[in-house]
Write a structure and sequence with these properties.
There is one protein chain. Strands 11-10-9-12-14-13 form a six-stranded antiparallel beta sheet, with helices on both faces. 31% of the residues lie in helices and 21% in strands. It has 13 helices and 14 strands. It has 395 residues and is of the alpha+beta class. The chain folds into two domains: 105 residues, no CATH class; 195 residues, NADH Oxidase, CATH 3.40.109. α2 packs across α3. The chain is globular, with a radius of gyration of 25 Å. The longest helix is centred in the last third of the chain and has 22 residues. The structure holds flavin mononucleotide. Flavin mononucleotide (FMN) binds next to β13.
Length: 395
């Protein structure tokens, strides 16, 4: 279909932030010329969450974007000499067109972002902190920070382990020590597990119990046919429970290894297509090559549906923070649930979100992975360090 450009209407994408960015590169000429050998280049980049990748813009483009409404439609024709600049912005997706066949994908993604009611800064933070192809272990190695003592050497003195407001101990108002219960003992046994025993499958009832405790709905409240609140063991902003869980089952008796979506409302699994390239490779890429999580019997990708929470908290300054905090609640509950059953658990924020989105078919404008946790039997030997100074797990 040919497009009559004289009739094209345009507007700016819904959310856009500019970042003045400096890149620093080694430059021999600079060094020979008596400088510090570094070439510094400054440029503006546009961060538009519906695109997911930064776009370099020049001064003319930046200035034009500041003059085009993101809500009212403007005739492309009315821009006169600036039409060429506008065309380049349409090509990059920073402007969107109301004309079928003209950059439809950009317009559709922009529409979905608008309908998601993101706070603009939450949207930018989420979109531009997602990883793809990152190897967190190599990065740690290259920065020389893979052990605590090397970290101290490389990073210098850290802020103190606890803040002290009074200097004299007798000014402290000491609190009573209440006798410990089984609950204290359980919490003290919670140690992030980095050593899993791949030779021993987790029985199905044990798997089901951990999942039920951390993720299942215990009850529901139906306000109207379409407004339903689930009650879970974890708190949730507005009671909306945006957190979805995608399970990577690697080693559970009676469950085929693979990807599953967990249905919290009915405590059931929905099977998903197998990831390309095999499950072990998928897992390693998901956890950014942290091999110590590779043998976990079950991994749980926590993937909130932002649009569920933002349906109520529209453009809310706290929206993204609240949703991210909820992953911590689920994770801690999963740790305790697993620990109670004699298993080890973990959480990692070092994840390749884009890889997960592709495999799970998630649209990052409405849903994205914010953390991966997991659980399984601990190995008999600690090969990778765990933090157990009181020897609650490792005698
Ligand atoms: C949000 C979050 C992200 C974490 N990410 C990682 C990670 O990427 N890799 C890892 O090995 N441990 C990760 N951990 C686990 C911490 O390293 C661990 O909690 C810390 O060392 C204290 O040990 P403990 O959990 O046994 O008390 C993470 C913990 C939290 C709460």
């Amino acid at each position: 279909m040919s497009i009559d450009e004289s009739k094209v209407l345009i507007r700016r994408c819904a959310v856009l932030v500019f970042e003045p960015q400096e890149t620093v590169e080694f430059d021999l000429q600079e060094l020979v010329g008596g400088g510090d050998g570094l070439r510094r280049t400054l440029r503006w980049q546009a961060l538009a969450p519906h695109l997911g990748e930064p776009v370099a813009v020049d001064a003319r483009q930046r200035e034009l974007l500041g003059r085009i409404s993101p809500s009212a439609w403007t005739a492309l024709d009315s821009l006169g000499e600036e039409r060429g600049t506008a065309q380049a912005l349409l090509d990059s997706g920073l402007l969107v067109a109301r004309a079928p066949g003209l950059h439809d994908a950009h317009r559709e993604r922009d529409e979905r972002l608008r309908q998601g009611y993101w706070h603009p800064l939450g949207a930018v933070l989420h979109a531009f902190t997602r990883w793809d192809g990152v190897d967190a272990v190599r990065n740690m190695h290259e920065s020389g920070t893979e052990t605590a003592s090397k970290m101290r050497q490389v990073l210098g003195e850290p802020p103190a382990e606890a803040r002290r407001l009074v200097t004299a101990d007798d000014e402290l108002i000491r609190l009573p020590e209440v006798p410990h219960s089984d609950f204290d003992a359980l919490m003290h046994r919670r140690v992030t597990c980095r050593n899993f025993d791949a030779s021993r499958p987790v029985p199905l009832p044990v798997f089901a119990k951990v999942i039920e405790r951390a993720l299942a709905a215990q009850a529901k409240v139906e306000v109207t046919g379409d407004l339903v609140f689930l009650k879970k063991n974890v708190p949730s902003g507005g009671g909306l429970h945006p957190m979805e869980a995608y399970l990577v089952v690697q080693n559970v008796e009676g469950l085929a290894p693979g990807l599953y979506h967990y249905r919290a409302d009915v405590h059931a699994l929905e099977a998903l297509p197998a990831p390309e390239g095999g499950l072990p490779e998928f897992v390693m890429e998901a956890v950014a090559q942290q091999h110590w999580f590779g043998d976990a019997h079950v991994l749980v990708a926590l993937a909130p549906r932002f649009d569920r929470t933002f349906w109520k908290y529209r453009h809310h300054a706290k929206g993204y923070r609240v949703v991210a905090l909820e992953a911590g609640h689920v994770s801690q509950t999963l740790y305790l649930a697993a620990t109670d059953l004699g298993l080890g658990a973990f959480i990692t924020g070092a994840i390749n979100e884009k890889h997960l989105e592709r495999a799970l078919g998630l649209d990052p404008v409405t849903q994205g992975v914010v953390a991966i946790c997991g659980f399984g039997w601990r190995a008999s030997q600690m090969t990778v360090a765990e933090l157990d100074p009181a020897c609650r797990i490792w005698a």
